[in-house]
Design brief:
Strand order of the largest sheet: 1-2-3-4-5
Largest sheet: 5 strands, mixed
Radius of gyration: 15 Å
Mean pLDDT: 92
Number of helices: 4
Shape: globular
Order of helices and strands: EHHEEEHEH
Length: about 150
């Protein structure tokens, strides 16, 4: 496999929904574990897409969906003059995590978001399976730390 064997794209949620479930399950199990149920809000994603508040970038290998990056797009709540794209989901199936694929994927969607009026991209990563070093290598700076109640 070379990086040229992968296809990057922009796709609609409703068009990839069936293909998403196996990846969502793998992603969820990696971050949260099988003991916690996965119940995504399909209606919520559809509504966001209808409002042009959802951008989905996909990664395919031999036509098969193997990765995605979902962004919630909206005017910044504290600085309304800018529009932000906040990463909701970023995942590449484990068997394809090698080389520079993830950074190439990030470098694919960044200029598209900026060309479509996004002023700032906010990427989030989980402590349990952090890809912060990759984000820093791609030019992102740590800005905020979030803590969750259990």
């Amino acid at each position: 496999m070379s990086l040229d064997d992968y296809e990057f794209g922009i796709e609609k949620f409703t068009d990839i929904l069936e293909e998403l479930y196996p990846l969502w399950r793998e992603h969820h199990n990696e971050l949260v574990g099988e003991q916690v149920g996965l119940y995504p809000s399909i209606e919520g994603y559809i509504e966001l897409e209808k409002k042009s508040a959802l951008a989905i970038f996909t990664l395919r290998y031999e036509g098969k969906l193997i990765g995605y990056s979902f962004f919630l797009v909206y005017p910044h709540l504290h600085r309304q003059q800018i529009t932000v794209a906040v990463n909701d989901l970023f995942f590449i199936t484990h068997s394809h995590r090698k080389g520079w694929l993830a950074s190439k994927f990030i470098k694919y969607f960044e200029p598209i978001l900026f060309a479509n009026g996004i002023s700032q991209i906010i990427m989030r990563t989980k402590s349990r399976s952090s890809f912060a070093p990759l984000l820093k290598w791609c030019g992102y700076a740590e800005e905020e730390i979030s803590l969750e109640s259990r």
